[in-house]
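Issue 218. Parser rejects a valid record. Input:
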Amino acid sequence: MEIPRIPLGQWIEGGLDWLTSEYSLITRGISRVTQTGIGGLNEALMWLPEWGLLAIMAALCWKVANLRLAIGAVAGLLLIWNMGLWEPMIETLTLVVIATFVAVVFALPVGIAAALSERLYRGIMPVLDFMQTMPAFVYLIPAIPFFGIGSVSAIFATVIFSMPPAIRFTTLGIRQVPVELIEAADAYGATRGQKLFKVQLPLSLPTVMAGINQTIMLALSMVVIAAMIGADGLGSEVWRAIQRLRPGDGFEAGIAVVILAMLLDRITQSLRKQRKSG
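Output the parser choked on:
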């Protein structure tokens, strides 16, 4: 006996077609705003001379960490510059910064709400499991009909893919605040908002920073994959090397991605340690 096949794929396609037709004005507006932000930040970073950005990154690393990280950052960025990948690195950094900013803006309120509401927590956890286990390439499919080929679709897919860790860690950090401190705040007559902003969020900040760190790493991996739908940056260099069978060029772009990932990871880890010790 044959079991009728559930037309799940057709339902999804129909839903995407309906969304793109009904909300095309909204998606076009979001696309224009996002493209303006990408272009503005990219031009600002490209306006800086290479040595100027090197000096800024070195000073930032020295400030948040130590001299060793500053020297390592300069050495890594000089290697990227020497390989002729400075502009693609800037384009990748722009996409990561914007995608991480948007993801964190959405994730923090959701994580706070899930930490304070048991019902919302139970409802959102399966959604986060679904988002984190879905293959990254799948997120590129709905991005194209909504925003077309290019960097805006890459931002959309990257935000969806990289958001779950920030939500999870925010929820975890707030829920791990000792009950005794919450009870002490209640005893002093603190309101719900005062408990959140003066007790729970400050104590959970190291955990929240760990979630932001993971979001940055996932965003970086996704913007590289998003080169398949026309995103600029180091990912497009890797994709071009694959298409032209140039393994050397591909490894150079991959090394540049690794350097950028290590630099962003060390900076956010140092910020997390500062918050934890403070």
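Fixed in the parser; the record now loads. The longest helix spans residues 192-225.
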